[in-house]
Structure formats: C-alpha cells, structure tokens
Amino acid sequence: MADKQRENHREDVAGRANVEDTPELLAYYEDLERYKAGALWTVANKIEPWEPKSQSEPVVWRYKDLRQHVLRSVELVTPEKAGRRVIYLNNPGRTDVAAAVGWIYGGLQVMNPGEVASAHRHSASAIRFIMEGAGAYTVVDGHKMTLGANDFVLTPNGTWHEHGVEASGSPCIWQDGLDIPFVNAMEANFYEVHPDLSQAVGYEVDDMTRTWGNPGLKPMVGDGWNKGYSPMFKYEWLPTYDSLQKYAGCTDGSPFDGVLMEYVNPATNGPVMQTLGASMQMLRPGEATKAHRHTGSGLYHVAKGSGHSIINGKRYDWAEHDIFCVPSWAWHEHVNGSDRDDACLFCLSDLPVMRALGLYREQAFGDNGGNQPLL
C-alpha cells in the first residue's frame, strides 16, 4: 500500500513553520489522527497566509450572452416548481458554495406578466437590481414597492418577501444578490415558506421610500427605526443618478473609484444591511482611475455605459448590464470607454462585514504611475 501523502507547508523564513518530515514525526502524525487532532506546524503557513489569497476568479458575465438563456428558462420551469426562476452566477473558484465572488451569491431572475413567486423568508440578506421590463414589484413584510430599471431593492434577513410582475407589465429580469454562502459558512441559515404562500399588502404602495427617502429629512414617528437594516427598502435610480451628477459637479472624486456614493440606512447613516453593502459610482467621460486593492469582495453591475476594468493585470471589457466581480485583495482599476458619456457601476459588497470585524485594509498601487501593467 502506497504511503499516504501528508500536508506539510514549510517556509524557510524566520518565524514561519519549517519542520522537516521524519519517520518518527510521520508516525506521530498518524497517532494524532486517531484522536481527531493534528500538528499545527504542518498547516500553519497554509491557514495563515502572508496576505489574502482569494479562491475567486475575476469573471465578466455578459448580459448579451446570458439574456437568451435566462428568457429560455421561462419555457422550461414555472416559479411554482422552481421556487425562484434564477440562473445563478457560478464563479469557477467558488463552485463548491455557489458563489459569484467570495461569500456573495448572484443570479439573474426572470418573471412573466401575471406571475408571482411565493412568499418566504430566510436568514440570508438579499438585494434586487432591476435590469429590464415593466410592472415588477416586491412585497417585504407587507410593504409593496413598484420597481423600475436600475432601481435597487432590499429583502433583509428574516423578512417575508415575494416578487411578481403585474398582468399589465412585460417580462422582467433583475439581478439577485445574497449573502447565502456567508450565512451557510456561519452555519446559521434558516428558510421558511409563508403558510399562505403570499402576504397581504398592509401599507400604501412605496410607503417606505416616500417616508425615508427624503434628502436630509428624517420622519419623527413613534420610536423610530431600530432594526439592523435600512427601512428604505427601495432606492430609486433617477434620484441616485441625479445625486451622482450633483456630486460630480463639486468634487474631483476618488482617484480609485471616480465619483463614488454609498447607499445608506437613513436611520443610522450606516450600511443598508449588516452583511451586505451597496454603492454606485460614476466614471466621467474618458476617466481612467488609479489601481488599488482592499479586503472584501465586489460584485459589479454596469448600470450605464461601457468600458473596461483591469483586475490583477488583466483587462476585462464590460457593457451595460454586464456583471463582473473583483475578488478580495485583487488589484483593480476602471476605465470609461466613452469620451462623451459617463458610465455608472453598481457594486454589491461584503464591506460591512470587513469593517465591523476590523478586517478592512486598503492599499494603493505604487508603481507605474499608479496603473497596473497588462499581463
């Protein structure tokens, strides 16, 4: 019988594990295995790397390629049978957890006019970013929201939620984003189907945006809002784009991200949810940013325009409604491909987790004038 190949991650560096295998040690390791234990020095350099080494790969999911396959799913399965009719984004380095990048799940969901996906709730937090169609809506804990292109909507953890398209509407496609892989890694995921499969609408339509979405104004009702997620379940595209334009008129912006604004919880000025954050950035006509890297993964959606990003020295071209990912601690920079029109990138990230746990770190690219050489 061939000898078992054992892990032993050695580094010839002071302060790092560098223990050479001997027959006596190999026998010792076998003894430890009998007690469901092991010698730390054989794996220490693996589990405590010098810097983050993401398993995720940079990927661009091109909408012009995926759209036809998303629409074809309408002919093949019903929302009732599928639960949610979604084509998920499967990063080659994260297929074991069905993640688009890092610990973030992403997918493209499609619904036809008159269809309704049953109400459910789960421990995972979720967002929707509307791509095309008319008549889409979401109901969250009895609050109904009408949805238009590039609107961004929350379905926070533990809330009853369902989605549908009015009979008078058109086929709708939106991007889903959830922290399912993260919650599963924490071994904390629960899932529950509503006993009636749907929930009653108990408030005026779009009441949460009308209540909490007024710039600089906070409603003075009751005891306020004390939940761990934003009460403003829907963030509309037109006010977002207007805000970016206003801000662009009075700032040079970030050298790494252009004109960047973060979606916030209006009750706390913190992230929209505890585990998922979201932002929208504008790249001015012809703008090319400098490169940087940071802990935390990003799933980008091209809300407007076209251009390319350079991620770890490789160029990735993108156009409207393409989705691409930037893994944690990957060098990245963005370029607007137009010298006349701006480009806007929506980003879903796990930065709230990084910041809350004290794990956020950022570094600028110091060579070559701040831009990566292409590999």
UniProtKB/TrEMBL annotation:
Alphabetized InterPro entries for the sequence: Cupin_2 (IPR013096), GDO-like (IPR047183), RmlC-like_jellyroll (IPR014710), RmlC_Cupin_sf (IPR011051)
Identification of the protein by name: Cupin domain-containing protein
Listed CDD domains: cupin_GDO-like_C, cupin_GDO-like_N
Family annotation (PANTHER family): 1,2-DIOXYGENASE PROTEIN-RELATED (PTHR41517), CUPIN (PTHR41517:SF1)
Top-level taxon in the UniProt lineage: Bacteria
Organism: Ollibium composti
Presence of the UniProt keyword ATP-binding in the record: no
Domain Cupin type-2: 108-174, 280-347
Short name of any one Pfam family annotated for the protein: Cupin_2
Keyword annotations: Dioxygenase, Oxidoreductase
